[in-house]
Amino acid sequence: MRLTPLLIPVLIAACNTTPATTVTDTESATGGGSSSGTTQGSSPTTGVSATEGSTDAPTGGSEGMTDSGTTIATSTSTSTSSTTGTETGTTSPAQTDTGPQETSGTSGVETTDGTSGGGSSGSSGGESSTGDVEACACPDLEVALDDGIFVLSSNAQLWKYFPETNKLEQLGPIGCDLPPSTFSMAVDRLGFAWVQYLDGQLRKVDVTNVANCSNPGFVPGQQGVSNFGMAFVSNSAFDKCDQMFGDQYTGIPEGVDAADFFRVDPMTLQIVKLGKTSYGTAEVTGTGDGRVFLFAAKNPDTQLVEVDKADGSFISTVPLPGVKLGGGWAFAFFAGDFYFFTDGQNDGKSEVTHIDYDDSDNNGKQDITVVINNAPLKVVGAGVSTCAPTIPQ
């Protein structure tokens, strides 16, 4: 998601056709340095001071916002440094709606109940131990859905981030029929990235061939919702079919009933409002076991919020000291943890921050670590299929 001054969309110059590129953590931290001279990563830790009380929306990034007073470890490796030990809340209840419908012009196969299951071009059948075909089985694609996080640049290029190796790989510019000024993204269980543009339009991009772009027929501006954070979420831990959920972008970082929380009906692509949230600049991610999380502003930094999928009501929150939204932000859940992509330095090069949400190292803390200081793109969208693992691998 990107925030621009006065909320006026700024069209980004069309992307070139640079061939696929793989960037390691070392290259992104040292070889792709910012022209603005960012100092993050120049020392192991960075101390900053906090100022409370402001509720103004960050304009054009973190300008006008003060830094927090919490030390955060920065590195270009996967080592961790403890900053917070906040515990999480309970999981949201299961929901039994069907997943998103496959539309014409895509390679997916629609099931009889309108879910996104049934596989896609090149997919495997996914049979159960009883011989029955598994509902909403994960397809076996050339570009795998279960080994990383898809990320979208502000100028409409699709990349993939691999948490295990801490590398970024460029998949290429998406071949859609709109000016390359993108806002957010979600990835479904069939291997399509649903890309949202600044004008609210959605396009479906095949992750195995990013030049293959189609219009699914979503009508922008429904019920007063223009732009929104978005993610696909499984119906429950036992029902793997997925559907899209969204949190309305209103420009209000935090406040009572700041934004509408909704799902997108898989059959009609109509917005179905479910309730309100207190976060009007939040991005959304979902999990393969049916949970919904928001990445939201919390002066002077940010927070990770779990909400109830049924109505958007608050469940739990984890503060993210030192992690700032900046000029573009996104996040995703992968293998029990979260990864945040933020342009906190407002230099067009995102930082990647990891939180050990499930405390996999058993130190009693949810360690926060910057794993990439200067990615070679400004990330505005991140999407992970619900085929991705929910526990450490």
Description:
The longest helix is centred in the first third of the chain and has 6 residues, at 25-30. The model is unreliable at 3-129 (pLDDT under 50). Strands 2-3-22-21-20-19 form a six-stranded mixed sheet. It is mainly beta and 393 residues long. It has a single domain (19-127, 142-383), classed as Tachylectin-2, Chain A, CATH 2.115.10. Helices cover 2% and strands 32% of the residues. It has one helix at residues 25-30; strands at 22-23, 45-46, 72-74, 149-153, 157-162, 167-173, 182-187, 192-197, 202-206, 209-214, 228-234, 242-248, 259-264, 271-277, 283-286, 292-298, 301-307, 314-320, 329-334, 337-342, 351-355, 368-372, 379-383.
Q: What is this entry, summarized?
A:
With about 400 residues, the chain is an all-beta fold.
Question: What structural keywords apply?
Answer:
393 residues; mainly beta; Tachylectin-2, Chain A; six-stranded mixed sheet; five-stranded antiparallel sheet; 1 helix; 2% helix; disordered N terminus
